[in-house]
């Protein structure tokens, strides 16, 4: 099979719009629940960011998707087949643990070894090398590669068979800023070429730059699955009024007490831009003078920190997950 620099091959099976679906996916190690009832959907053709702090359960989840770890409970479907099914695995390219390359062989020869094992053609080796920007350095020894080049060679290895799904576990981990930038650019270009990619990371800023949607995991549990825009939309609305205490009571009744609070003489509400009309209407219809309504923008980093530091199942976590559906 050759590696294409355009969209991956379309077959009847590609009419399926979901590349990955998990339901209640759980992994326990003794008393410890590494992955806790994760529900997750990756759509065909998207670059999906799987975000979470270190130890959140990203690698364990991805290992379950490729059959390296057996779930304790729940299900995972990958490319329409049960996770780990050999027919499905043949269509998945994964970089989950650094691949074992031979230090004394060139990058190209390492890929040729992998290609032989995977039944990929010699042409696929050169195509994969150029896809990851290593064509000019393919004949250098692996041991001379920078960490960033080693990681990109790992991605080339995952691309050899022209996979329908690419799973990259923290491919920028340990890279210097230049290496991180190169890897981001590579993932972005693969996404633009139509590949379906799951990219795990603990860096919000990173996935923001390359991903269409993100799933956020903390303490083994999903706290959000959403587009970047929707995550950004989860902000606060600040309302200036002539009677803050009354306005707080009116809005608490209309929207729920947990969504509304008094901050520095103004009323602050958890909500998004679309809520502003209803807020204004509620206040005006109660005869409260409104002097200002504005949204407080949060950075995605703040959203991420807020979600991952909150106990899974709290209101804010549940709200984002709900809004994303
Ligand atoms: N084989 C194992 N045996 C016992 N505990 C494990 C095992 N693998 C993972 N864990 C634990 O499960 C939890 C989730 O680990 P995991 O590696 O999936 O997280 P992660 O989000 O990928 O983090 P990191 O970015 O640090 O790799 C951690 O507490 C980890 O210590």
From TrEMBL:
Keyword Nucleotide-binding in annotation? yes
Family annotation (Pfam families): ABC_tran (PF00005)
**Residues in domain ABC transporter?**
20-244
Q: Name one GO molecular function term.
A: ATP hydrolysis activity
Organism's domain of life? Bacteria
Instruction: Output the SUPFAM superfamilies linked to this UniProt entry.
Output: P-loop containing nucleoside triphosphate hydrolases
Entry-linked InterPro entries? AAA+_ATPase, ABC_transporter-like_ATP-bd, ABC_transporter-like_CS, P-loop_NTPase
Q: What's in the keyword line of the UniProt record?
A: ATP-binding, Nucleotide-binding, Transport
Family, according to the entry, reads as follows: Belongs to the ABC transporter superfamily.
* Protein name, as recorded: ABC-2 type transport system ATP-binding protein
Q: What organism does the UniProt record list as the source?
A: Actinopolymorpha rutila
Output the lineage of the source organism: Bacteria, Bacillati, Actinomycetota, Actinomycetes, Propionibacteriales
């Amino acid at each position: 099979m050759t590696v294409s620099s355009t969209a991956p091959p379309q077959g009847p099976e590609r009419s399926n719009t979901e590349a990955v679906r998990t339901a209640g996916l759980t992994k326990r190690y003794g008393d410890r629940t590494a992955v806790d009832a994760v529900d997750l959907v990756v759509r065909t053709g998207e670059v999906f960011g799987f975000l979470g702090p270190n130890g959140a359960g990203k690698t364990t989840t991805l290992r379950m998707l490729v059959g390296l770890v057996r779930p304790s409970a729940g299900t995972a479907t990958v490319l329409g087949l049960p996770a780990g099914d050999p027919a499905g695995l043949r269509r998945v390219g994964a970089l989950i643990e650094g691949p074992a390359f031979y230090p004394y062989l060139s990058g190209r020869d390492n890929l040729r070894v992998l290609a032989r094992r995977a039944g990929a053609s010699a042409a696929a080796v050169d195509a994969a090398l150029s896809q990851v920007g290593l064509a000019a350095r393919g004949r250098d020894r692996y041991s001379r590669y920078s960490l960033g080049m080693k990681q990109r060679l790992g991605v080339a290895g995952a691309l050899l068979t022209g996979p329908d799904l690419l799973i990259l576990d923290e491919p920028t981990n340990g890279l210097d800023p230049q290496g991180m930038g190169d890897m981001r650019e590579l993932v972005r270009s693969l996404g633009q070429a139509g590949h379906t990619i799951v990219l795990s990371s603990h860096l919000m800023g990173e996935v923001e730059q390359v991903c269409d949607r993100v799933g956020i995991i903390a303490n083994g549990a999903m706290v959000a699955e959403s587009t970047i825009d929707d995550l950004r939309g989860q902000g606060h609305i600040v309302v200036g009024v002539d009677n803050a205490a009354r306005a707080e009571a009116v809005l608490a009744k209309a929207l729920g007490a947990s969504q509304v609070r008094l901050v520095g003489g103004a009323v602050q509400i958890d909500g998004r831009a679309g809520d502003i009309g209803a807020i204004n209407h509620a206040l005006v219809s109660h005869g409260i003078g409104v002097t200002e309504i504005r949204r407080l923008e949060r950075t995605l980093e703040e959203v991420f920190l807020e979600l991952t530091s909150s106990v899974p199942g709290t209101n804010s976590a549940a709200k984002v997950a709900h809004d994303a559906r």
